[in-house]
Amino acid sequence: MSEAQKFSQYSHNWWDENGDMKMLHKINPIRVQYIQNIIEKYSNNAGNLDILDLGCGCGILSESLAKLGHNVVGIDASESNVETAKNHANIGKIDNIHYATNLVNCNKKFDVITIMEVLEHVDNLGEFLHENLKFAKEKSIVIISTINRNLASILLAKFAAEYILNIVPKGTHSIEKFLTPYQVNEKMEANNFKNVDICGLKYNPLKSEFSLIKSPKINYFMSFVTQNVG
């Protein structure tokens, strides 16, 4: 089963806050706040930016960013996810989002590119970043979230999350695709981006809440700007 097929099976209840994608709903406010903080710090224009949301799923993050006034293009390889995202945006009358399954016909470039919970599902990291970062403007921001690769992350983000706590559908993650911050940074530098921020995401199973922390040991966020910025 391909990664697109894996996530297509959840498109029917993606927007159900108690459904299979409930954890995305829980972390979304933190993602949005983190993205806005980075934008305010590293962009000359904190509002009305052109944002590319890669691996947008059914649009949870895309819609939140659009509601803040940004112009958003959401890309997901799953056709059913894209259709669900389009329908949800239409119902909400959100007209500053465009969804598609690829960037083949895209002739614009973006101020911000978000790649959230995506890289741990990519087969070829270098190729994926090289192909998609071509859509960044000369001065741009890239914000990534993914899962670290170590014993703790394997035990917690894979086995505990999927098989003990049942907060993530079983089979969601493949251990061999987990990435250290060093690996991500190395590939981003190869595409002329420099790291400006890194932090971790912590889950409290007792409160069923997420929070940002300094350590990127398990889940982490990284932000990058083009090398000629600042």
Brief description of this entry?
The protein is of the alpha/beta class and 230 residues long. It has helices at residues 3-8, 22-42, 60-67, 79-91, 125-132, 151-164, 181-190, and strands spanning 50-54, 71-75, 97-100, 110-116, 136-147, 193-204, 209-213, 219-226.
Explain how this protein is built:
The chain has 230 residues and is α/β, with parallel strands linked by helices. It has a single domain, classed as Vaccinia Virus protein VP39 (Rossmann fold, 3-Layer(aba) Sandwich). It contains 7 helices and 8 strands; from the N terminus they run ααβαβαββαβααβββ. The protein has an 8-stranded mixed sheet. Helix 2 packs across helix 3.
Element layout with pairings:
Elements: H1 3-8, H2 22-42, E1 50-54, H3 60-67, E2 71-75, H4 79-91, E3 97-100, E4 110-116, H5 125-132, E5 136-147, H6 151-164, H7 181-190, E6 193-204, E7 209-213, E8 219-226
Parallel strand pairs: 1-2, 1-4, 2-3, 4-5
Antiparallel strand pairs: 5-8, 6-7, 6-8
Helix pairs in contact: 2-3
How many beta-strand segments? 8
Overall residue-averaged pLDDT value: 92
Q: Could you say how many structural domains there are in total?
A: 1
Q: Give the DSSP E fraction (strand runs of 2 or more residues).
A: 25-35%
The biggest beta sheet, please? 8 strands, mixed
CATH architectural label = 3-Layer(aba) Sandwich
The sequence of SSEs as H and E is HHEHEHEEHEHHEEE
Regarding CATH, which class?
Alpha Beta
Number of helices: 7
What's the shape?
Answer: globular
CATH topology call: Rossmann fold
Low-confidence stretches: none
Helix content, binned percent: 25-40%
The Rg value, from CA coordinates, equals 17 Å
The CATH homologous superfamily corresponds to Vaccinia Virus protein VP39
State the strand order across the main sheet.
3-2-1-4-5-8-6-7
Give the N-to-C terminal Cα separation: 43 Å
Structural class: alpha/beta
